[in-house]
Amino acid sequence: MAGNKVSSQKPCHHCKSRSASAPPDASTIHYEKFWLYRHCSSVQQRDRQAQKAGQLFSGLLAMNVVFLGSAFVSSMIFNHVAITLADVWILLSILKVLCLCWIIYYLLGTSRQPHAVLYRDSHAGPIWIRGSVLLFGSFSILLNVFQIGYSAILIQCKSRVEIVFPSIEILFICTQAFFLWHHSKDCIQVQHNLTRCGLMLTIATNLLLWLLAVTNDTIHMEIESQLREVEQRFAGKAPFSHPYLCNETALCTCPNTTICKVFQKGYILLYPFNTEYCLVCCSVLYVMWKNVGRRISHHHVPHIKPKFKLQGVVFGPLLGATAVIIGICVFMMYQIQATSSAPNHQVFVMYYSYYIVLLPLMSVGAVIGTIIHALEKRELDTLKNPTRSLDVILLMGAALGQIGMSYFSIVAIVATDPRDLLNSLILSYSVLLIFQNITQNVFIIDGLHRQPFISPGREEEMKEEQNHEAYDQRRVSMLELGQEIRKVSRSYLHSYSHLSWKRRALREISFFLVLCNIILWVMPTFGAHPVFENGLEKSFYGYSTWFAIVNFGLPLGVFYRMHSVGGLLEVYVTA
Questions:
Q1: What value does the CA radius of gyration of the chain take, rounded to a whole number of Å?
Q2: What's the gap between Cα 114 and its chain centre?
Q3: What single DSSP character describes residue 379?
Q4: What is the 3 state secondary structure string of 297-358?
Q5: pTM for the model
Q6: 117 has which bridge partners?
């Protein structure tokens, strides 16, 4: 099932480091085989059918694991007596141990076999994705450290599982981050089915970790909201009532010590990064799963790799930086009001007014960028690219979170009192958010399907780089080094002076949208949730129903903003 080698040629132990641009000999290819298709007359046909069968069976494995874990998590929420959080942690710990065993086997066994990695997908695992894995992974590790410290302080009322589970989580995060950083581009050619099943098991485990993180985050928000309502009740106000009461919060409270408060606040602050880490890892692992057994043609390997350079952009960074600074000020004022007491009417007006000003600017920029794409003469990139296909799916899927919440808000406002100032602001915000998501998706997806633009100056620079690599072994004098630097400088000035207005506009728009999406990612990630705290939709749909809607839409919205940043950077680079 793992694969069949065509020839008994002596294996080359240096094939793993073979350049992707040099196509391997046909005798080194490991064709797949599967017992259902062992009677196929053609080796290529048997290989294709075996690949489809391997993807089917590994997908079924992931589906069953996800359904089992989802049943555990749902049972914990609706019947927390029979299924407790500790039971869910035990199940996830077993899955993580299995994933760790497979990852270690892949690192030490599969990837080191002869002719294991003959091809590497240049589009998979870009630096911003791997950087996100390291960044969010580091914060997730710190989150688990805070959880261990917090549970250790309250060990008299906490289970020991609450210390063991984060410890396993730290080991899992470190191993998985190392694996994705070094092997995200692999197109593995041996042990196909075992690798597919291992990748799908790891994807399913990350999805369940994300599901648990989302539900736990929701529970924390619900407890916080209920405690706020209790404070309002003592203050003589009439809060929105709900039968949910968290009596267990009084049984295990943080003592009045600085270290406990630090662990508690740090845990709440870093919690959103764990959800982002799980989703990013799932996207990288899915691309690796699609690349198992993939053989990249020599003509599909890009000889030109655009680099990120801050040239030809002035207004985009200025406008984007202005939006970020104003957004940080609005966010801080909102958080100060939200943490000190219940947010007042003016804070909501300020928050939604900021969005109502920013979203149309982003939409206009995306529309102009799409029109410029239509006016360009760049050819469409029609080659098979699993990474780009996944980016499109994630952009469209993640946008459903904010779009769905917006439509629910529109119905609630129109059915109640749309003429109220705050309600009219929320209505405008919801409509503009839908339009902004659609226009930005069109701009990003169209840009991702365009071939990179290479200026004459860049071509001259690449020729110099190729010549420099060809004579990498020779010594160069200081005079020759100075000449090389002057040539690169001249090519940079040449490319800057010859930037067309279309390319400059695309770079300005892309950079502006990158900064805007960053601030729109920061605000909900670090605690600004007016869609739940304004009380309008909650009173219209009911506490539990609206909380379920927010539980679905808010994490997807946060992931959409983060993923849009990566797509916009790709558009900026290819422009």
A1: 27
A2: 33
A3: P
A4: CHHHCCCCCCCCCCCCCCHHHHHHHHHHHHHHHHHHHHHHHHHHCCCCHHHHHHHHHHHHHH
A5: 0.71
A6: 188
- Residue 427: count of CB within 10 angstroms of its CB: 20
> 293 near 55, Cβ under 8 Å?
no
**410 Cα distance to chain centroid:** 28
Residue 66 near residue 207, CB atoms below 8 Å: yes
Give CA separation, 513 vs 56, 229, 323, 563, 566, in Å: 38, 38, 10, 12, 11
The phi, psi pair for 380, rounded to 5°, reads -80, 140
Helix (H, G, I), strand (E, B) or coil at 480: helix
Phi, psi for residue 520 in degrees, rounded to 5? -75, -20
Sites in the chain below the pLDDT cut of 70: 1-47, 80, 216-254, 256, 297-312, 339-343, 377-385, 451-499, 527-528, 575
Burial zone of 478 (CB within 10 Å; 0-12 exposed, 13-18 middle, 19+ buried): exposed
Average pLDDT, the chain: 76
Q: How far apart are CA 558 and CA 213, in angstroms?
A: 14
The per-residue pLDDT for 249 is 43
Half-sphere exposure of 133 (CA within 13 A, CB side): 25
* pLDDT recorded at residue 554: 81
Q: Which residue from 511, 528, 557 is spatially nearest to 408, judged by alpha carbons?
A: 557
The whole-angstrom separation of Cα 50 and Cα 44 is 10
Give the C-alpha separation, 553 to 532, whole Å. Answer: 11
CB 140 within 8 A of CB 173: yes
Tokens (6 digits) for 331: 């966010």
Helix (H, G, I), strand (E, B) or coil at 287: helix
pLDDT score, position 108 = 92
From residue 114, alpha-carbon distances to 161, 180, 184, 492 in Å are 42, 21, 19, 42
- As a whole number of angstroms, the distance between CA 532 and CA 536 comes to 8
Specify the pLDDT at position 475: 44
Per-residue pLDDT, 221: 53
Long-range contacts of 383-389 (CB under 8 A, 24+ apart): 383/300, 384/300, 385/123, 386/121, 386/123, 386/124, 386/287, 386/290, 386/291, 386/294, 387/121, 387/123, 387/124, 387/126, 387/287, 388/123, 388/448, 388/449
* DSSP per-residue letters across 229-249: HHHHHHTT--PPP-S---GGG
- Per DSSP, the residues of 399-455 read HHHHHHHHHHHHHHHHHS-TTSHHHHHHHHHHHHHHHHHHHHHHHHHHHHTBPPP--
How far is CA 62 from its chain centroid?
Answer: 20
Q: Which amino acid would we find at residue 18?
A: R
